[in-house]
Amino acid sequence: MTDIIIAGAVGLILSMLGTPLAIRLFSRRGYGQEVREDGVSAHLSKKGTPTMGGTVIVIAALLGFAASHLATLAQPTVSAMLVLFLMTGLGAVGFLDDFIKIYKQRSLGLRSGAKALGQLIVGAVFAILVVQFPNEYGITPAETKLSFLRDIGPSSIGLVAFTVWVLIMIVGFSNAVNLTDGLDGLASGATAVVLGAYVLIGNWQLRNNCIDQLGPNCYWVRDPLDLAVVAAAVLGALIGFLWWNAPPAKIFMGDTGSLALGGVLAGLAITTRTQLLLVILAGLCVIITVSVIIQVGFFKMTGKRVFRMAPLQHHFELKGWAETTIVVRFWLIAGLCAAVGLGLFYVEWMPRP
């Protein structure tokens, strides 16, 4: 538990203190947000707000994780390092996307194909490595299986199918967080509650692991404590960033932050064997992504729109809702989704009468 507290505290302090430094640095260099002219008119006033704040989140989280292990003299585990690799790799893809937007002074950065290729390369490396490195008990960071509250069924789906599934998860959730990042503080708050849930899940799996107490409801997870430390480090960094990102935002996370955070969520779901549970835990991001799919699909079929604008948060903006109202209400939905997911996780574990 000490590891978790140190990681979260260091990540929080570094992000809280480092974000205003980033704001001044990015402002001085002109690293400001470009805004779509065909978007919500109220957003035009946000043009020039410093972006790429996700770099602070990533760096603070990495340093928080490192500080935790230095303080406790614990060896970093393979599972945690793989999740941090996924976060950093996707954050690098997002950083390149953000930098191109700034350099070329436009609202679009990397071409969609190049951006997807970067995500796929990082994701493929993660997918291949995550089923390697068994510990002394033969447990690898992940198995080539689907999982909900734990791995589903005794049969493997095969490395190729598993890799494709992992890539779908990584690209899907990194883009889902990216779509959620449309209003001040929205993505930060929505992902924070999911990370909080994974701190609890990792800690619970540690206390009920099959190595220390073999039983019908124990967990075969390789490094649950270190995964909770990763979640805590990122959570602390995200809360520190949210202090400055809350409405009205003084800095945006950009694709650097949104892709990195989506990667962390997918990585934690895969290594804690809760892949499908993430759909519920990160329900708000899923709902927002589905709204875009519905809007695009319905428009292509009928030439008409279901929503005034997609993603969903912009629909309510155009209906006249205040930005802070949307953000707070969506945070509440995100919290409810995380609570339902945690409830399912706990109920499944409860011994049967």
Describe this entry's structure for a reader.
By secondary structure, the chain is mainly alpha-helical. It has a domain at 78-140 and 154-224 and 242-349. It contains 12 helices and no strands. The model has no long low-confidence stretch (mean pLDDT 90).
Overall pLDDT level:
90
Q: What's the gyration radius in Å? A: 20 Å
User: What is the strand content?
Assistant: under 5%
Uncertain segments: none
Number of strands: 0
Largest sheet: none
Give the helix proportion (percent range): 55-70%
In N-to-C order, the SSE pattern is: HHHHHHHHHHHH
N-to-C CA distance: 31 Å
Structural class: mainly alpha
Give the overall shape. globular
How many separate helices?
12
Topology of this protein?
Blueprint: H1 2-29, H2 54-72, H3 78-104, H4 112-129, H5 159-180, H6 186-207, H7 224-245, H8 254-271, H9 277-281, H10 283-302, H11 312-318, H12 323-349
